[in-house]
Structure prediction request, 1369 residues.
Amino acid sequence: MSNETSRKMRVGLIVNPVAGIGGRVGLKGSDGAEIQKKALELGARPEAPDRAAAALRKLGAAAGRISVITCQGGMGEDECRAAGLSPEQVLPGRGAGATSPEDTVQAARAMSRAGVDLLLFAGGDGTARNIYEGAGDRVTVLGIPAGVKIHSGVFALNPASAGSAALRHLEQGAENSREAEVMDLDEDAYRRGEVRPRLYGFLRVPCDETRIQHVKARSVPEEGELTSIAAQLIDGMEPGVYYAVGAGTTTRRVMECLDLPNTLIGVDVIRDKKLVASDVTERQLWEIAQEPGSDLRVILTVIGGQGHVFGRGNQQISPRIIRRLGMERILLAATKRKLLSLPGHRLISDTGDPELDRELAGYYRVAVGAREQMICRLTAGDE
Amino acid sequence: MEQIVYPYIPNTTPEVKAEMMREVEAKDEREIFEVIPDHLLYHDFKLPEPILDECSLKRHTAAILNKNAGAGTHLCFLGAGCAPHYVPAVVDEVLGRGEFYTAYTSDLGDQGRGQLQFEYQSQMAELLDMDVIAFPQYDGGSSLGHAFRMAGRISGRKKVLYPASINPMTLNIARNYLTQIDGNYCDLVEVKYSGDTGLLDLEDLAAKLDDQTAAVMIENPTFLGIIEIQAEEIGSMAKKAGAEFIVYGDPISMGVMEAPGSYGATIACGDIHSIGIHMFAGAGVGGYVMVKDDPKYAFQLKDMMYGASPTTVEGEIGFSFEASFDRTSYEIREQCAEYTGTSAGLWTATAGVYLAVMGPAGMEEVGTLIMQRARYAAKKLSAIKGVSLKYSGPVFKEFVLDLTASGVTPAELNKKLLAENIIGGYDLTGTGMGLDGCMLVCVTEIHSKADIDQFVQAVERGLM
Amino acid sequence: MAKEIEIREFHQARWNEPIVLELTVPGERGILVAKAEQEVAEAAGDVLGEIAGVRRKKRPALPQVSQPRLVRHYSRVTQEMMGSDNTLGISQGTCTLKYNPKVQEHMMRHPGLMDVHPLQDTDTMQGILEIYYKTEQIMKELAGMERFSFLPVAGGHAIYTNAQLVRKYHESKGNTHKTEIVTTLHSHPVDAAASSTLGYKIITLMPDEKTGLPNFEEYKAALSEKTAAIFITNPEDTGIFNDRIHEFTEAAHQVDAVCVYDQANANALLGVARAGEAGFDLMHFNLHKTFSSPHGSDGPGCGAIGCTGAFEAFLPKPTVEFDGSKYYLDYDRKDSIGYVKLFLGNATAVTRAYMWCMSLGWEGMRQAAVISVLNNQYMTKKILEKVPGVSLHYGKGERRMEQTRLSFDKLFEETGLGIVDVNHRLVDYGISELWMSHHPFTVPEPFTPEPCESYNKDDIDYYVEVLRRIAVECREDPETIRTAPHKCARHRPIDIPADSTEESFGKLATTWRAYVKRFGKS
Prediction:
């Protein structure tokens, strides 16, 4: 708000023109030149351009107060014009059928260097991965859902709400953001019929659902909440006990509060608040669990928008380890916002062992603050 | 039965009520409450018959209140945390403004309220020489409890030192606020005071002050009325030990007494009762906690804050009570949570009016006047046979009279005074302070020489 | 509905009054103070000389303003407010901004209340104690409880005091393992915060997506031997009544947990249903909401706590007692939790509540509940019918109690403008901002109006029409909304920091001296 008279807010726009192209013709994804070619042959029509334009129309309300940077042709420029916006800067780009993931990576890198206030992109999980590769967490991004696979937490619900959320973020001075997961399937496994998304990293997205009344209409950052959660977990740590700290930003804060190096998308093991091993494999963990007299506990958070605590990004916590430890040795942590956003407010277990998933079903406590826990139902993924 | 249309409940008008019932498709009142199961309903309320007309209600209530005595009917020399002070008419005018006392939580709609609170906050900053203040606490006791907790968090230590002369009522509330299920938030340790002067015993303080001490707390003036002239030295001792220096002060003294912030207080707290609030049988109290312009302190304040900033229009100033809102219990809290909520906004706003009416000269004059009259009363009273002044330290508005030599207890004396339409001082017997047979007398700006003389004569008669 | 509702042309007073400190004309006075009589001054001697060590060296920089100017200042500033005396207090759900009867305010100036010192001999304050005692009898009957204390002066204070009662109760039974409190996300956050101030761990239940109420199975999973108490609001802040509340209290009692009822939302149940029948051990009423005591621009109020006989011994000191001929204060209570408030609490709120109850009786109080619920059901229906972009998330088709949590989600999806924007505009129509929801939000773009019994049908129709008008403006004239407010006393402050970081501290000005330092004005 304080900036609104001083300078225009800058929005970057990247459209992956072939995103979603595989979906309508029954292909499970659009990654890879082969698939795209096959899709076009099957008569697929790109959907990303329309969806991007739908979101951009929402920005029309603020046309005078924002400036848009985008890529040539079908990578954003066309969509801008379709929505009645004229971009102030156009980077080189290619049209549908001619683009590669590397184009998205390059464009994202260029925009992060240009210092945009928000990077809007249209695509799916694959596109999100490319954006992550190019821009990392240096810029706040927001995904317009246009792909076949939407497992990442970086997408708005639909194009219109992407536009509205982007508008609000820009109008409020683009100050608040939080981290959200970039997830994607192993595409080969997916086409074999196995749904197993993996965690690839985290992007910063606008944070606007817990706005305070009246004051600058901006939200309180997640920072305090994460630190509080970490405080509860650290307070409860017992001497001599191993703690395996799983993937995610909530669990990362535990390591940060202990001043320890952290593997964001892997599992680290600590004991007596000191690092024992970084980015361990399942086998290493299994060995620790089997050490005579050892006591191992695992700290996990929810990965992905569906509510997975097992099976997304914590593959090291295997069925045999879960069985050995039991749920009483597995500590769960998440922000209230995350839990409330889960469908049915439910956690999901997808360990790869359906029988175990069914055994684990029940009510568990999740640390949500320094002295606060919530009760959550854990169910098997297929329920 | 005749249906009553209640003046406070307009939709009890039968026609309108019937129309609305139709609108919400409820055939009767039970249906409006259909979500409540039968077994939770209750029908057998045994309540007094109402007094429906306003005239009778007013007479009924007045008849009950007429049974009370007070500073309106008697000469009152009772203090101990609440005292008869003069409330300027302008203050009462503002207090009576309906838009003000019926307002609550509108932020933009109540910019005037924001301004009143901000003005209170700003004037307290000048009076106390502190910089940051949040919404008030319930009373001086809860402000002290909050100050102790803050000191514990800021210093990372647990021991707090307080003077043995402290107001036991204030301490009790703070103590309750420190009580937790797993031990106390802070450990309270008492420091002796001199039985001669009433001032803090600095040797005892030095003996108890160590690197585990979170805070040294003093009252100034003390509960027993003495002005703690060693305050600055106590502050430096605390500072040397790395402890916070908490000063519990009486705002009406600060036109003549140095501002706590000017003699080393890192946390100032107390009650605003004395600055423009009627006694209201004890309802007229409110707490304050103030700190210096330092985020390490400011962000430990537990309550909401009125902040000011420029607005979207050049040259305009606006207010909001959600400044640094994420500290409060309305938001996710850090480990050392303290709750917040409705407190005493009516009193802080009017205390601000009081300070503006008084101004710098008024505050100095009223402080001087109170000291003169208190000193005069102390002299006269202690000249009575069997009565002595307990402490030699300088007094502000209260002082301790030792009646033991008279053979009359304070309670007996007070009964006799009451028969002469005088409300005597606070009986220190049984307070656990070792002051049985002593009386704490309070003299303020409302007491003329004639009032004091009348009181002195009544005491003389009472002790005969 | 043939009647066209005409929206009045409104503009709030806008005086742009300077901060009172800026009004200073050196030497001006607001009041004169008496001088000590000559004899007094002589006998007293050099009083300031004696306190050299702590004598004030420099006068405080308070305002120096004449009385007429001050009166104009305060008249103007108080015109820039929206109390229930001058606007529709419908927006502030959970706060119950009902009418505060004037006859009560007149009584506040009675010397038998205003000038009473709380430590007077109880013989000289029998009237005050009588009001406390009689009000307690009324509250006991309304709540189905056996004792009351009026010492807490706010809802949060009452919850804190009840948490202390829970602590003391378990301590008396040697229950050292009782360390957890169970509450719900739709209960007021102070239920969690006040309990955690005592060191309790909090287990919070999420609302069920369909009903908005806590899920009973989840609740049972939350209860354990460690549960010290449940703290629960009913109806919750969503306006939804938990019809299984009795099962909740029963299940808690089975694990020896205390059931604490936060009855801040009691306006719907007055004279209708009681805490006692629902199985609660402790509860509180807010006399400044339900019982008509004014909010006073944020207190002091009174959080009257009620308890069953099992908790009476633990109540804070003192209690008000009656021996058949005289009222007295009982400080001699060895099992008490101690002191939570100086003196007697808020006697003004208790007196007002007494007068309010006496003016209505049971039937009148029951009508207050009936009408507040009827008003809300009517208003909810009209909002959903007439205001575009609003939806109801939980318990669709279920009757709400005295307030309703609604959502401007569709308006936001459509226009990019949501509840915060609506609030900025609402004040332009002379109506205070809508209460949204406590954090974290469980529905998007939430708002929670409460049209208690003080408002008539026309008031509610008018209110709904204003909301409709604003929703239409969001579609048709978003710029007006975006730049609102236009017609209230001040425009939107733009540099109030919402968080507590080193960086935001540079914008935090709670006092004029800090403001001058931060924003450069002098």
User: Anything to note?
Assistant: The CA atoms of residues 21 and 141 of chain B lie 50 Å apart. The longest helix of chain B spans residues 345-382. The interface with chain A takes residues 107-108, 312, 320, 322-323, 325-326, 331-335, 337 of chain B (CB under 8 Å). Chain B is about 35% helix and 15% strand.
